[in-house]
Amino acid sequence: MKKTLIALAAVAATGAAFAQSSVTLYGVADIGLQDTNAPGTKVQLNSSKTMNNGSSRWGLRGTEDLGGGLKAGFNFEAQVWLDDGAVKESTALKPKQGNYFDRAAYMTLSGGFGELSLGRRLNPALYTAAAWELTGAANYSAGLSQFGAGLAGARTSDMIMYTSPNMNGFVVQFGHRLKGDNGTKASNDLSLRYAQGPLSVAFNYNNNAGNPGNNKHLGASYDFGGFKLAGAWIDPAGAAKGFAIGGTVKVGTVSLTADFARDTNADDTDFVLEAKYPLSKRTFAYAAYLQDGKKKPGALGATPAKNINGFGLGIRHNF
């Protein structure tokens, strides 16, 4: 009888622990047609490529209440290519076999102090760009096409990252990669972001690639209601330097965006035209045109002797 009572108490304690934990399955399904005039390309059905709005993926995230205001969490995320069902690397949007949870694999500890995370995840530089960029940092973003190297890639492995609490719209985020994980030297990635009402402003400084020099950019957006305006000053390491500017207008339920990104040193301009039509709260259809300037290699995978044009028509579902 005594053993039975002990067993029941253990089961009850386990149930209480599980009640304080949660695991969520989430993801994105994005597929569409892509056509470019880059050498050797043709019309294709694609998922997770440049002319898709986003990269298809699935992931698991969970939290456990540790008590005293503390929570432990985790996030694992893998890329899925809907055209053939493969799970492949997200790096550079190329279909190479790679680490299964290439998009995210990290743990967190959070509380009133903010959040500390350890592992591979989106870096502060990309969060900075997404704070003002008009397409939501879509795969076909003109800014990412032109100055993607200035973000030191979208993700960083072996990263120790701190995110502050939201202080009346202001958030500080700092990522650090130790010298032992970075090869030649430690790297840092600092993001300062403010978003309150219609205004969003964000600044980033990083040397995340571990290369000489550093990357800086400052961007802002303002929503006037039916029209949203955004712009940024961008100064990556090396010779590149320039700006981005664009606007989004609502026509009924359709969102129309025009966004330009210019490298003033290379005399090179990329621009994107995008239309999005909501089918529900979680699903939308989109059409996009990206022109990759002819002065330097870009997102569409060619070293242009002429402007490279990409067209995309697809559908995206978030779950």
UniProtKB/TrEMBL annotation:
User: InterPro entries from the xrefs?
Assistant: Gram-neg_bact_OMP (IPR050298), Gram_neg_porin_domain (IPR033900), Porin_dom_sf (IPR023614)
Q: Which SUPFAM superfamilies match?
A: Porins
Methyltransferase in keyword set: no
Q: Name one molecular function that GO assigns to this entry.
A: porin activity
Signal peptide limits:
1-19
The membrane topology of this protein is: Multi-pass membrane protein
Q: What keywords sit in the KW lines?
A: Cell outer membrane, Ion transport, Membrane, Porin, Signal, Transmembrane, Transmembrane beta strand, Transport
Q: Which GO terms describe its cellular component?
A: cell outer membrane; pore complex
Some GO term, biological process aspect, for this entry: which one? Answer: monoatomic ion transport
- Cell compartments where the protein resides: Cell outer membrane
Show where the Porin domain sits: 7-292
Q: Does the keyword Membrane apply?
A: yes
Assembly with partners or alone: Homotrimer.
Protein name as catalogued: Outer membrane porin protein 32
Organism (species): Tepidimonas thermarum
